[in-house]
Amino acid sequence: MPRLRLTAIDEGYSVVVSTRLTGADNPEIVLDAILKLFPDFTCGLPSPPSFPSEQDDVLAADGVSLSTFLDAIHNQAILDTSLDSMSANLDASGTIFQISRQAAMAGKVAFPLPDSNPLGGVITVEIGGENLDDWLEAATWHSGRENIPRRIGDEFTMDSKGDAVTWH
Fold first, then answer.
1. How many CB atoms lie within 10 A of CB 88?
2. Residues 116-158: pLDDT tens digits?
3. Cα–Cα distance, 41 to 35 (Å, whole number)
4. 111 with 82: CB under 8 angstroms?
5. pLDDT tens, 67-87?
6. Rounded CA gap, 152 and 149, in Å?
């Protein structure tokens, strides 16, 4: 059976994708990284920085489809990690998570550890709406869950350091 293709668009969810430009971040290069995973992301770009730079801008767009991002996590086979990372800050109104801009430049998804400052910066994704827990589980579903079911916050959820709790 083919997998259900979710996007969060027209499914009752709001999606905001953003990133902060600081220092020597080139807006066009950062936009290219975002577009690899969120091809319908649109916003105005500030002028490229000149040295010395005090740049502190935010690129943001709402109503962004998660289709390409979800395809990437399926292709990379990081669905359980994605479920854990995407739901770590889940509450009744939604969730917020970050992905590496450097990985995005290669069309890949990498979830930085909380409170880390990865080289190249991060892209922040905010998803809002009701029953988001069910949507996240469906968006990250894979056939292995038929044998080892997963739920948000279950005993297999990784710890705050990114380690699988079952490995220790």
1. 17
2. 888 889 999 999 999 999 999 999 988 777 777 676 666 767 6
3. 6
4. yes
5. 999 999 999 999 999 999 999
6. 10
Give me 167's structure tokens.
Answer: 């490995």
| CATH architecture label of 14-167 | 2-Layer Sandwich (3.30)
CB 66 within 8 A of CB 6: yes
Q: Domain segments of the chain: what residues?
A: 14-167
Provide CB contacts within 8 A for 126, sequence distance 6+: 14, 15, 16, 17, 18, 94, 95, 96
Q: Given the structure tokens 């990985």, which residue do they identify?
A: 103
Residue with tokens 């991002």: 69
Q: What does the block give as tokens for 168?
A: 């220790």
